Amino acid sequence: MLPPSLSNLNSFGDVAAEDDAVLDYFLKTEAVSRIQKNDVCLVLGRKGAGKTALVRYFAEGAGAGTARSISLRGYPWNVHASRIDRGASDIEAYVSSWRYLICLEAALLAYGKAQPDLPRAKALKQFLDVNYGGVTPTLADILKPPKLRVKGTSFEPEVLGFKIGSIDFERKTDDLGLGAELKALSDLLLATAIELAESAGLPCLALHFDELDQGLATLDDHRARMLTGLILAAREVRQATAKSKIIVNSVIYLRSDLWDDLKFSDKNKISETVTLHLEWTPQTLLELVNERLRFKLASEASWESVTTDSLMRGSQTKWNHILARTFLRPRDVIKFLNAALEQEANGAAVTS
Prior knowledge:
Layout: H1 30-36, E1 42-45, H2 51-61, E2 67-71, H3 77-81, H4 95-111, H5 119-132, E3 147-149, E4 158-159, E5 162-163, E6 166-168, H6 178-199, E7 204-210, H7 221-240, E8 247-255, H8 256-261, H9 267-273, E9 275-277, H10 282-296, H11 303-306, H12 318-323, H13 330-345
Parallel strand pairs: 1-8, 1-9, 2-7, 7-8
Antiparallel strand pairs: 3-6, 4-5
Helix pairs in contact: 4-6, 4-7
């Protein structure tokens, strides 16, 4: 049998995880283990560091059934911007609306796995039918209605002993407080999510928020407050279910530079307790390349088996030459290797 050869390889994969068959050769790192244990609710990494690959692994692979990918690509930020809690501080003005969105998404995930004839499932369906016209609202739909109707449904939250008939997202005064009303409704949805998940035998419910930085070069103050609200809401829900039978964990995937630009009082505490910094080393990047070679060529294939020991320009190994030009990012390494394959296919001499 001939040894594995790069001449039999067309590509190392697509540089964009959303377009790649990344689950066929996904590399399980320490980051995977920490997220699986629900140890983190914030994953930070540079662009191209592999955040979307992690989201796909949990939503489509190992976590399928208990996890859902929440892509913010094309999200109606302008609509959400009007769902502000005027009774809260500037930093916490969007915590209530994000908390409602998280709890509803968790309930939808659990509803999809539970028996539809359960009382909690019927109550949730009635609420969804009344407010969204069905049980499959899109992410963009969740905060779109100017008012949520709860009177006449099985979801009738109370605030200060009074039942709420509806929740007006577009009120101009704080009155009783949008935050208090939304929290009461969110608590009901969270309890529903937990009960339905337990009935379906699910170990946990995980929401993975990705592509928050789509089309975003820098943060203005308004978007910064909204991102902060999402992070704080995710932590609140995680803490609220930490001792329950079903943990509801929202994992926020965010570019490191955007996180650096955020300013709020609990930032350091979150960094030190529930944050994962997604970083790669020369060794883990080599393992990533070897995983792809084994899948695409042969089970015994490895970087060492398809390259020679000759040095680049007499001083660097081929692997170190690649690392020096790719900033320790998977996307850059794959792009570099694909370019080398393309040059070879076009008849150019591959670096030797």
